[in-house]
Design a protein that fits this description.
Elements: H1 2-37, H2 42-56, H3 62-76, H4 80-91, H5 94-109, H6 114-167
């Protein structure tokens, strides 16, 4: 049973990690879009985002930790395209894989419209986050339905028991 419990804990930890990274995606892409529109290269924007995270963040976020690891790979001299591929493989989420594919395509072909594509991706990411937040709210409301029904039953009992006792049949 200990082995099954450890597997369950690892699976729950992995799901929480993926959920957190998915939640942070709109912020990451908006930071990249802002820095790229300011004229920075992808690598310089990457460095700036990691440095800001290290300086300002009190909480540890998985995606920024992965970006920090990739920054170390940049500093070790690993080629930029390979760092992007390693990052997308480590993270394993489709959003980040798509973002890394954009960066790789830009690096290889010198894509002129990277900024436009990034802005579209940013708006899609924010819309998806709105949908996910709405969905989570609905799930919480559903979970609270049973306790609310229990409280309603208790209130009915508090009203009906004294009423029936007053009949004195």
């Amino acid at each position: 049973f200990l082995h099954l419990g450890e597997k369950r804990d690892q699976r729950m930890k992995q799901e929480e990690r993926l959920r957190q990274m998915e939640q942070d995606y709109p912020q990451v892409i908006s930071k990249f879009t802002m820095l790229l529109s300011a004229g920075l290269s992808v690598r310089n924007a990457w460095e700036r985002i990691v440095k800001l995270y290290r300086k300002k963040s009190a909480t540890e976020k998985e995606i920024y930790e992965e970006m920090s690891r990739s920054l170390l790979e940049f500093e070790k001299g690993i080629p930029e395209l390979q760092v992007y591929e390693l990052f997308s493989n480590r993270v394993g989420q489709i959003h980040y894989k798509k973002l890394m594919a954009l960066f790789i395509s830009d690096r290889r072909k010198g894509s002129v419209n990277l900024l436009e594509v990034m802005e579209q991706e940013m708006s899609l990411a924010w819309e998806e986050q709105k949908r996910n937040t709405r969905k989570q709210g609905e799930q919480i409301g559903t979970k609270l339905l049973l306790p609310m029904m229990g409280m309603l039953f208790v209130v009915f009992l508090m009203i009906l028991v004294p009423a029936f006792m007053s009949f004195q049949l």
